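Exercise 7.
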Amino acid sequence: MPKIILKLGDALNILKKLPDNSIDAIVTDPPYGVLGKTQKWDKFDSNSAFADFTLKWMELCYDKAKPNASLYTFYGQKFMKEMFNLPTRWKLKRMLIWWHPNLAKPTRKMYLWTYDPIFYFVKGKPHFDANFSSSENVDVFKYPKPQSNWKNNFRFHPASKPVELVEKLIKVSTKEGDTVLDPFMGAGTTGVACKLLNRNFIGIEIMPEYFKIAKKRLNV
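Solution. The predicted structure, written as tokens, is:
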């Protein structure tokens, strides 16, 4: 059975306490300023404050990552330029696309928002083993957004991501028994994917209501 560790609190504080060079991969969906009107955890005072926050957590994760490690971070189109120009020690390898045509707000006045970028960074030369015939290493992944009226792809969190998509990222970049970190785990989707793949998991969440959901989903 994989080892599951969940921590309630501020990721920037908790990350400092984790051992250096101990994480094989980071797969996360951090705050990136697109839900700030309705969610206080996603609100930033300015673009520079957002960029500072992003750099801080990424650099902390770099210290905790093993010499050969991967980082996948979901992101929004709004701040893509900032991510490309971020002065991080991580090496940006690719920008992947999560295409989710469902739930787009209909309009005739502008192009729809139907994709989220996923930035793939590396430290050193991490494990990567993808099955081409199963489309594991394509750069565009089509999965519908989770919905609150669906049983299998249920929306546990305002920014929920599909388990199948997160599972695919973890599978190609880690081996069984490796340790995956999600410093912004929300309702625990990365942890669910880790359990399915027999990967150890460390999850951090600042909001008690979502931490409680993650504990229930992961039977912790």
